[in-house]
Design goal:
- The structure holds 2 protein chains of 2 kinds.
- Helix content of chain A is 42%, strand content 27%.
- By secondary structure, chain A is α/β, with parallel strands linked by helices.
- In chain A, a hairpin with a 2-residue loop joins strand 1 and strand 2.
- Chain B is built from 15 helices and no strands.
- At the A-B interface, helix 2, strand 6 and helix 3 of A face helix 2, helix 3 and helix 8 of B.
Chain lengths: 338, 336
């Protein structure tokens, strides 16, 4: 399993006044679906461009399919399909013409390219629109055409930049299912960048959280949430019957159970945070005292929470960065005028 | 011979072409050309050029009979060159027309070469394919030039063929060479404006900005440049009444050379010399030089020698512009 097809070592990209990607090291294995998660402007697209050799890293190295991205980007582009977030086709060519053009650029003969294009269009469900001009396509159709476009070169790796942006929910579901299917059938490695957490959660084997040019954490989703939230303890959500007069008593009663850290009450919903797992005891305890419980739920963390947690961290950092900038500016001016 | 024909037939058969893999450059060129030809813009330009051509040919065809009969030298009448340059003063001849139209042709074929593809996101898709980056820009430059070359060659050959059909006058080798070099010159001139337009299309993100800037440059060179030069020179030059004739000639030469910074002037100089064998000098000629000269035409070789500086000037301008755009494009970071 440990067979990295994408290897990044200390990859950095500096712009004039901004560090877009900061010392990024990452390995992605063959046949894996990896999700690169981060807010807008986190440097996801820059990283992808550097992987493909479309942008030169300031320092560090990216190895994709055994090729160095700065030295042999043509070798990489032969094996890697890239679906940009804002993809465009030649509007006055038909879908087949667009695909076969890319096919021919990848070294297929006209006949092969044509056959492959039709085959792929069937696969992504655009068979009936094959000879239609692309300007008439909807966003979702274009996205599927984009997937076909990526697949026509028989890639080993596909990189999808915000693939679910602007497609309707059912379209997203189909699209993700299609990607998962391709990953299973052809053992494709998929690198997916997104800020849409649910989508990534659905199909990714592993995710990396990418904020401010840095990879803050990586791993599968359960282990990530463990890493993050275990320090906060276990959270149980309880819902009780409406009996508002008893709230203070209720709170007191809950607190009488040992090992609880915090009890937060919102109407008839109670959030209980404890140091260790004790949901069963809690329920038994409350029922024993005659409270009418309607719902009990153990809170698990999705990407939403993980993401928000990291985002908070980033915001704090931003503030401190700004402060340090101000300080340096001041000292700069002082030097200038004295 | 039969075998040769057979192998050629196999080589160019549809089956073989469909099965052959093409180089990325070939594929790109094919796409560029087909995209240009199918666009409305090209249809409009084509109509414009063809209409101008027909108008100037009509005026020259209706006057050519009298001009041909009255020509003193029956040995070298240059019927077909006259056809291309003759005019009854109601409209300018075709090559003067072209000095205005060729820039428009170049600009409109190139002003959105890079930025519109960048804006609609197809450029990044192209860059993600296994091809070298310079293939893209070279294709962007060569495709319109190929179209323009075919357009002008077919236009001139069509009118020559037609004239040959109605008049029966044989064409001379000299004329063929002159007309071909005139076409080459025109394509080169279009290429110059094309390279400026492509440069602007790389520099500016909006196609409208690059189109306007290109048109601005064109207007400057066709209209304002002469005005500006005249005004500036008047301020510097002493009163001609107090100057010797040598000095006047010197100043005239100077003005002409400054005017030749404008590619417009270079093209007009070159095409006039190529199409009119009677033009023997592009600068002022003194009386001493004229004495003893026979009022005859000059050979192709001499005409070509005469326009060689103009030709190399245009080539240099074009290459410079293309080199800058090449550099900018290779350095540019492309992202959607």
């Amino acid at each position: 399993m440990n067979n990295p097809i994408i290897k990044l070592r200390g990859l950095s990209k500096h712009y004039k006044n901004k560090i877009a990607v900061d010392n990024l090291s990452l390995e992605i294995n063959k046949g894996e679906v990896f999700g690169l998660l981060g807010p807008n402007g986190a440097g996801k697209t820059t990283t992808i461009l550097m992987l493909l050799g479309l942008s030169e890293p300031t320092s560090g190295q990216a190895l994709v399919c055994g090729h160095d991205s700065t030295r042999n980007s043509i070798g990489i582009k032969k094996k890697v399909g890239y679906l940009p977030d804002n993809l465009g086709f030649y509007g006055n060519m038909t879908a087949v013409e667009n695909l076969s053009f890319v096919g021919r650029l990848n070294g297929f003969s006209e006949k092969e390219a044509q056959e492959k294009a039709l085959d792929l269009l069937e696969k992504v469900g655009l068979k009936n629109n094959a000879h239609q001009k692309v300007t008439t396509f909807s966003r979702g159709m274009k996205q599927r055409l984009g997937l076909a476009d990526v697949l026509i070169k028989d890639p080993e790796v596909i990189i999808l930049d915000e693939p679910t942006l602007g497609i309707d929910p059912s379209g997203v579901k189909d699209f993700l299912a299609l990607i998962k299917k391709l990953n299973k059938q052809q053992n494709l490695t998929v690198l997916l960048s997104s800020h849409h957490l649910q989508h990534v959660q659905q199909i990714c084997d592993r995710v990396g959280i990418f904020v401010g040019g840095k990879l803050l954490a990586q791993g599968d989703i359960p282990s990530l949430s463990k890493q993050l939230f275990n320090k906060n303890g276990f959270v149980t959500l309880l819902r009780v019957q409406d009996n508002e007069e008893d709230t203070t008593k209720l709170k007191y009663d809950i607190k009488s159970l040992l090992g609880l850290q915090e009890v937060i009450m919102k109407g008839n919903e109670i959030e209980v945070i404890s140091t260790h797992e004790q949901t069963v005891e809690l329920v038994r305890h409350l029922v024993g005292r005659g409270y009418g419980l309607i719902g009990v739920e153990q809170k698990t963390y999705g990407l939403d929470e993980i993401y928000l947690e990291y985002f908070k961290y980033e915001k704090n950092q931003d503030v401190s960065n700004e402060k340090s900038n101000k300080v340096s500016k001041n000292s700069f001016f002082k030097r200038k005028y004295t | 011979m039969k075998n040769l024909i057979k192998s050629l037939k196999i080589h160019f058969s549809k089956e073989n072409i469909l099965n052959k893999t093409q180089s990325p450059m070939h594929t790109l060129l094919r796409k560029e050309i087909s995209e240009q030809i199918r666009s409305w813009r090209f249809v409009i330009l084509l109509t414009l050029i063809v209409l101008t051509f027909i108008a100037s040919m009509y005026s020259s065809l209706s006057n050519i009979k009298s001009a041909f009969i009255s020509s003193e030298n029956n040995n070298e009448s240059f019927f077909y060159l006259k056809l291309l340059t003759l005019t009854d003063d109601s409209i300018p001849p075709f090559h003067i027309f072209l000095s205005f139209l060729a820039p428009i042709l170049g600009i409109s074929l190139g002003f959105d070469a890079i930025n519109s593809e960048n804006n609609n996101g197809s450029l990044i898709r192209l860059m993600a394919q296994p091809l070298y980056r310079d293939n893209i820009i070279v294709a962007k430059f060569l495709a319109p030039l190929l179209i323009v070359a075919i357009l002008f060659l077919s236009l001139t050959f069509l009118i020559i063929g037609y004239a040959m059909y109605i008049s029966g006058i044989p064409i001379e080798w000299q004329e063929i060479i002159r007309i071909l070099s005139f076409n080459l010159m025109t394509v080169l001139y279009v290429g110059f404006w094309l390279s400026i337009a492509i440069l602007l299309s790389i520099r500016f993100k909006q196609p409208a900005t690059s189109a306007l800037t290109a048109i601005g440059i064109w207007l400057f060179f066709t209209i304002f440049f002469q005005v500006v030069v005249n005004i500036a020179i008047k301020a510097f030059i002493p009163n001609p009444n107090y100057l010797s004739s040598d000095k006047i000639a010197y100043y005239n030469e100077l003005i002409l050379n400054i005017l030749r910074i404008s590619p417009n002037q270079l093209y007009v100089d070159a095409s006039t010399t190529l199409l009119m064998p009677t033009v023997r000098s592009l600068g002022p000629v003194s009386m001493e030089q004229m004495i003893g000269a026979l009022p005859s035409t000059i050979s192709v070789r001499n005409s070509l020698m005469l326009v060689w500086p103009q030709l190399s000037g245009l080539v240099a301008f074009t290459l410079l512009m293309f080199a800058i755009s090449y550099y900018l494009f290779m350095r540019q970071e492309i992202r959607s």
